[in-house]
Amino acid sequence: MIQTNEQPEQPDVALSEFEVPASAVFQDGVYIDIETGEVHAVAPQGSYPDQAFRVDRLAAAEWVLERMLNRESAIDALERRMATVVTNLTAMIADERRRLDGLHRRFDGELEAYARDALGSTGWKTKTLKTPYGAISFRTTQGTHRIADQLGAVAWAKRVAPEIVKSVEYVNVTDVLPRLDDGESPAWLETSPGGERCTIKAGVK
Q: What is the pLDDT of residue 27?
């Protein structure tokens, strides 16, 4: 693609230097500050010839929303494309992982046995057999313990050492609210006030 230094045609709209900075360029119906990325909305050429664009009528609101819809549609299409690519790559990764797991099941035992023989023949000067394609390593690990049956462990502890039994106490906010006096707001209760929220969306689901 050939790139040029030509700037998009500027609309015939009277705007003060305070409304549109010198670093702004006109693109897709708006001025965009190329240094900060800030968008300075202006009317399409000929629509509002004597003033900077303002949303002060239905046509103006629809003009802005149409451009929002275009951007949302582009984002939606890219997200769908990305999701499809990710889905395909995920399936390909799963296929390769199944093949890798099959190799591990088939050869891990033989690789371990061979590495033990090879390293043992050197007097175990090292615990890693290195090759250009991978390594087979051995390391000493300490045993671990885990409570596999909590109910059984708790029953045993209550008989032998009750003090080591842990308990967790809590209350649900739905149980607290009906029991508060009118206007009561204890310090341990966090309350977020309700309100009205304005959401601007062009309509892409």
A: 63
